[in-house]
Amino acid sequence: MEITHTQYKHCDLVKVKGRIDSYTAPQLAETFSKITEDGRFKIALEMSELEFMSSAGLRALINTQKVCKRYNRGELVLVKVPENIHAALDLAGFIPLFKIFDDVLTAVGNF
Amino acid sequence: MEISNQSITPLVVTRSFPGRYDSLASIGDFIRGIAHKAGLGSFAAYTVEMAVDEACSNIIEHAYGSEDKGQITCTCKVTKEGLTIILEDHGRPFDPDLIGAPDISGGLEDRPTHGLGLFFIRQWMDKVDFDFKTGNGNRLTLFKKRQASPESKPTKKR
After folding, report:
1. Cross-strand partners of B82
2. Is B1 among the domain residues?
3. Does the CB of B66 have a partner CB in chain A at under 8 Å?
4. Number of domains into which chain B is organized
5. How far is A93 from chain B (nearest CA, A)?
6. With contact defined as beta carbons under 8 Å apart, do B57 and B24 qualify?
7. For chain B, which terminus, N or C, has the lower number of CB atoms within 10 Å?
8. Which residues sit opposite B143 in a β-bridge?
9. Interface pTM (ipTM) of the complex?
10. Residue of B43, B126, B144, B138 whose CA lies nearest to A82
11. Is residue B37 part of a domain?
């Protein structure tokens, strides 16, 4: 798994590539924690090059969404979700909990 | 070895992996390779990879209790009907019925953060059998049917 983090004025863009499983999910959770501990709660996660995500990744998403949405201070949005991963999000009932965008520009502009 | 969709040759492959989270990527590569040989479509192969990943994570976390406590043995059987995967460990007996289905309809704050792995396994596999009374660890058998739809055909490389 490879994570790149770009901080914009109004939000943070995190791009994750490769594989999120029980081994790598803690790194993603830590990336999100560092952002929220900085007092920043508007995060876009770009997933176009993500090949695999297990429930460990879903846990990182839901925990971060809980922190971001508290007091209406922000949210975690998903961008360019691959088809297989979208099916997993759907089965887990996550679709109503996350805004999903087709491109980074619109996602970042949403904040 | 390439197998066409019409003539799946029965095949049995067994591999063992150290019970560590950093084995999960190698297990995933192994399962994807076998799923391709079994003629599963790309989405079906993904569901098998995910089910096996969830099961192996559970073995490390619950049956062994932590990393480096034992091996995970993975036996794959390719048949005309589909792909069977048997995962065996030597950890504590793990009774899946003690873990209920997660409530996936509630609001954000009520969402459970555990129990999703088993949910995926049960939803996405065509047959799931847990045997935790072997006297020596657990044996989980997963089966995924081959679909005859065009989506499921393997891409032929010659």
Report:
1. B145
2. no
3. no
4. 1
5. 5
6. yes
7. C
8. B84, B127
9. 0.95
10. B43
11. yes
